[in-house]
Amino acid sequence: MSTATTQALADLATAAPLITSATAALSDPGIAAGHAACFGILAEQLGAAQARAQIHVAHAVRRSGAHKLDQPSLQAVAQAGADPSLSNLAAAEGQTTAGRTAFRSARSFLQDWLDIPRSAAHDRLIQADCLIGGVDEAGQPLAPWLEELAADFAEPAIDPRLVAATALKLHSTRKDLPDGAAGAEQKQRLQSDARALIHSEPKSARKHIADMVAQVKAGKRPLKALLDEVGLFRRGTRRGLIEYILRVLPSQAAVIEAHFARTGNPATQAGDRQGLQEAEAAFTGDQGEGWDDEATKPDWAREGNTGPPGPDSGAGPDSEPAPDSEPAPDSEPAPGADAEPDTEPEVEARPVEPAPAWEDLKPERRRLIGLMALLLKDHRANEDHQANDGTSASRAGLATAQVSIILDYEKMLSGAPRYAVSSSGLAFSPGELRAAMCNAGIFPVILNGQSLPLDLGRTQRLFSKAQGRAIRAAYRGCAYPGCAMPVERCELDHLDAWENGGCTDIHSASLCCPVHHVERHCGLFHAVKIPGCRPMVLLSPDLDPEQQLRINTYFMTPDEALAAEELAQRMTAQWRAGQLEMEIVDP
Known about the structure:
Number of helices: 19
Largest sheet: 4 strands, mixed
Number of strands: 12
Keywords: Endonuclease, Hydrolase, Nuclease
Helix content: 40-55%
GO molecular function: endonuclease activity
Region (Disordered): 282-359
Protein name: HNH endonuclease
């Protein structure tokens, strides 16, 4: 068996250079039309074969326990991948260990060692469960969840990509199916109908199968299925704005709609126009269309006047109803509103100024401002309560948001237009920064040019809250390159081992997610300490044959990521030239 798999791996290794050379030749601009069509057929056949192989890889990794390979075995496998000779492939059979391993699961192995995106690794393991079979906790094989589709997946004449996509679709209904025999019967019916569509009309099968799944989810869904999909999801950045998708239960939607309704009514506290205006200014630094707009200022506030009018002038902010709000529909005019004034005005009465443009906001923007005002109000109330009696007004188990803003000291001195960024990687304009610094819950962290915290408060023997906040704000997330674990779920890592007499100091601290924290201590990668600079990472030779110093730029802005990559390359060059004082930290 070992000889057969070794030869199979050797055959597979020859495929990549053959495909590369064939693609280069067939990319000739003068290729004949018929050959171009042939190129397309053969390339799609290769794509289908590769899709099938990728799912088998996920199953093989999990079934064999490849994530438990010891470090020498991983290095042998990497060597075989770089030089797939028969001797290297035979030596790459490897050994697993029952002790502490670098990878927690098959999915973490696929993601971190094979560099497969997390979502793709997750999907391939689900597809393996559905179409090849799973593995129980004792390591024993399980039958595929979709046995009929599994037979189609093994059939070479059927496109495995369509079958695999169908399996994912059907698997997504598992929490919507009823329990017991009724659920098994409905699953079987879905699988049979999907197979019929694949065999009869593969071009439209995806659409019809999606409609089938939508019909299942359109019924009365169990609470467990609903809770599995609720949440606030970040989609990314588009046209300078951050997009989120909010999915809530109907009961939660009712609360949100009620708040929106109150925000739209200027007679309510939630809809107070002045308060909403101030709330928006707290985030944008723009005071809107109030008195900060010269055209809407009263005469006494205009440039050139020395101050507000005296008490008898009859002109001032309280001399007439505020023009930026309308009375409630059932309200009555104030008593005496139509009475003649006690004194004649000294000058001709000015016409009532039009409502400021802020009143013409779209409802969507007003709702957002109302929601942010609610969050800001609760946080400020908690801060005020703490300031008064030293206790927290938050309910047990709940925490208000805290934002760390990182200021680049050198850029700030040079007057650069963008020198501030949040701990989550969002850039601030100077106006937004000035407004944010006036709010509670904002913590400034000043860094030097090498992204090392400078303004940290007193250093203590143990990591204090101030130290932890500064480290998390500066490093944003896990130190491992490409890891997307947010900073809130990362652990402070002692680079000078405490058991070896190391101190808990800022300059010898790093951040790692729980998985990569273990992997560092298992020797999968090394932390590198450089005086005056943030810690860097040196991957093991099997993961990075070039042995470059690296920084995780996942949570950085594009500009920051480019600067970090340039810094890492410069440090690597100095290290190789023997010009860099550094320490490679032992696991």
